[in-house]
Design brief:
By secondary structure, the protein is α/β, with parallel strands linked by helices. The protein has one domain (37-211, 295-540): 3-Layer(aba) Sandwich (Alkaline Phosphatase, subunit A), CATH 3.40.720.10. It has 14 helices and 19 strands. The chain has helices spanning 2-23, 64-72, 86-95, 99-102, 117-123, 174-187, 212-218, 266-274, 289-324, 356-359, 385-392, 407-410, 482-501, 534-539, and strands at residues 39-45, 74-76, 79-80, 127-133, 145-149, 159-162, 166-169, 195-200, 280-282, 285-287, 331-337, 363-366, 374-376, 380-381, 421-426, 438-443, 446-451, 456-461, 527-531. The strands form 5 sheets. The protein has an 8-stranded mixed sheet, with helices on both faces. It has a 4-stranded antiparallel sheet with strand order 15-16-17-18, covered by helices on one side. Strands 6-7-19 form a 3-stranded mixed sheet, with no helix packed on it. β6 (159-162) and β7 (166-169) form a beta hairpin. The two termini are 46 Å apart. The model is unreliable at 1-26 (pLDDT under 50).
Length: 547
């Protein structure tokens, strides 16, 4: 009899505990165990090309610390974005949704009341933090502590926004400052809870202002040119010829770090820096035409790669900190970028277009339970990251997330029926670079792009033409071939099926329907706190919602 009473009391206590957890909003997936939940450290850079990491076979630089992540964990060779532009990518990262569902198709404000990964992790007991470039317009939600750059932020002596409508300045280079803020977050975290830290770098975003050490490292470096630097856009007349993100014509004097005449001041000086030179004098020689393009390419790449090197240095500092503080054994570290980037391929810089350099991102991960030295060739997307964060914590992702958890792939296991193709959609037309709006499908072997405002298609065989120089529909030798027409119809059907699968009804195809609210300030409502140290800044990063 006493045994039954004890059992009843135990059941009652368990029931009361469950009710208490529910009332406090505590969330735990079916397989989650607080003692087994790993820390998750997510490192995000801005505009880092997959081709600018030596683990991916870079011809232009060496990244030993990112290579360490790849060698000690998993490297994804086919990682893609759904919309290759900054703010939409960041909304997708949080929500696991395409732009048409999370309502951030362009540079418009993200609604912080929406459900997203950090909120689920916070409810599950994680100590959550957001540090660095946010660029979503609204204040971060779902984070116990946050300190973020206003808009794009500055490379030198950056200002940061903190809870309570306040802002402060930290002296130094933004990459190093962001790194030290991340380490201070780890130093001051509650030690009895797992942490989820999103550490977001500004670099290597335009205007490519590196720290002095890495600037000197690349100052005299001769960078190999890509094969398609002087692409003539033959067979691809729909959008490329009118784009304004070319190395030949669209880099400004500010981009190229040219010194203005001393007599120019104020608005005149800014106007001079904003102009795109068609002739430059270098070492007493007047450069124009192809010689000028080659010089512009070198100047651009030297600064870009120096910024990348700063990010790689930062990754090394973070990995060393984890090792020295006995955190590596229970911390999953993930590295990726918000979108791809052009390193002179197609004669371009920037991102946006669905061609391979802009569509692809690096994706590296290591940590407990993650395969060592594994290379995954499966097609993964940035919609997969949010459900992956939750899957690592043992939390079942909500049905609203459209991506798939990568946890099995991280273990070196390939799930059955993994996706055979990816869907992409870019809206920001004309945007900053006169890039035509388009959507498309990429399979393991082919790509179909549709510029819907021009009613023009491009079709590529990625096996025979990996540099995407020959649009099969634009080349008279192949346009009317039965094999081309059959492939075209097959991919059009697949494209339509993917739009149905992801619920893309074209709701933001017309700019008049784009959501309102910007992401770049001016942030005048934030009260200035003056200059602060890294420790002081982290001290005021506590969100009122977490108290």
């Amino acid at each position: 009899m006493m045994q039954f009473i004890r059992t009843d009391r135990l059941c009652l206590r368990v029931l009361l505990l469950i009710l208490w957890l529910g009332s406090t909003g505590f969330e735990m997936g079916a397989n989650a165990n607080a003692a087994d939940q790993p820390n998750i450290l997510f490192i995000f850079s801005d505009d880092h090309a997959q081709a600018a990491i030596s683990a991916y076979g870079s011809r232009v630089n060496k990244t030993p610390h990112l290579d360490r992540l790849a060698n000690e964990g998993v490297r994804f060779t086919n990682s893609f974005v759904t919309n290759s532009i900054c703010t939409p990518s960041r909304a997708t990262l949080l929500t696991g949704q395409y732009s048409h569902l999370n309502a951030v198709p362009v540079f418009n404000r993200f609604d912080g009341s929406r459900d997203h990964a950090a909120k689920h992790l916070q409810k599950a007991g994680y100590h959550t933090g957001m540090i660095g470039k946010w660029h979503l317009g609204s204040d971060p939600t779902g984070f116990d502590r946050w300190i973020v750059l206003p808009g794009q932020g500055a490379y030198w002596n950056p200002q940061f926004l903190v809870p309570g409508n306040r802002k402060l300045t930290i002296e130094g280079h933004c990459t190093e400052v962001t790194t030290q803020l991340g380490i201070e977050f780890l130093e001051t975290r509650p030690k009895d809870r797992p942490f989820f830290l999103m550490l977001h770098h500004k670099a290597p975003h335009r205007e490519w202002a590196p720290d002095l050490k890495n600037q000197a490292l690349f100052a005299d470096r001769e960078i190999p040119e890509p094969e398609t630097l002087f692409d003539d856009y033959a067979t691809r007349p729909a959008a490329l010829p009118e784009n304004e993100q070319t190395i030949a014509n669209d880099l400004t004097r500010r981009d190229l770090k040219m010194e203005p005449p001393e007599e120019l001041q104020g608005a005149e000086r800014n106007r001079w820096l904003g102009e795109k030179p068609t002739q430059v004098s270098v070492g007493g020689k007047n450069l124009e035409g192809k010689d000028l393009v080659k010089w512009k390419y070198q100047r651009y790449m030297q600064d870009y790669l120096a910024c990348v090197q700063g990010v790689d240095d930062s990754v090394g500092q973070i990995l060393d900190y984890l090792d020295k503080n006995d955190l590596a054994k229970n911390t999953v570290v993930i590295y990726t970028a918000d979108n791809g980037w052009y390193l002179g391929e197609f004669g371009l810089y920037d991102k946006r277009f669905m061609y391979e350099p802009g569509l692809r991102t690096p994706l590296l991960a290591r940590g407990p339970g993650i395969a060592n030295g594994w290379i995954s060739k499966e097609m993964v997307m940035n919609i997969d990251l949010a459900p992956t964060f939750l899957g690592l914590a043992g939390i079942t992702p909500p049905e609203s997330m459209q991506g798939k958890s990568l946890v099995q792939l991280l273990k070196g296991q390939v799930p059955d029926n993994w996706r055979p193709a990816v869907y992409y959609r870019y809206y920001h037309d004309p945007g900053h670079h006169n890039t035509r709006a388009h959507y498309g499908v990429r399979t393991g072997t082919h790509k179909l792009i549709y510029y819907w405002k021009k009613d023009a298609y491009e079709l590529f065989d990625l096996v025979q033409d990996p540099l995407e120089q020959r649009n099969l529909l634009g080349d008279p030798a192949t346009a009317d071939a039965p094999s081309t027409r059959s492939l075209f119809e097959k991919l059009k059907t697949q494209l339509g099926d993917l739009q149905k699968q992801y619920g893309d009804d074209g709701r933001y195809a017309d700019p008049v329907d784009w959501p309102k609210g910007g992401v770049d300030g001016p942030f005048n409502e934030f009260k200035p706190l003056g200059k602060k140290s890294v420790a002081e800044a982290i001290g005021v990063s506590v969100s009122a919602a977490s108290n």
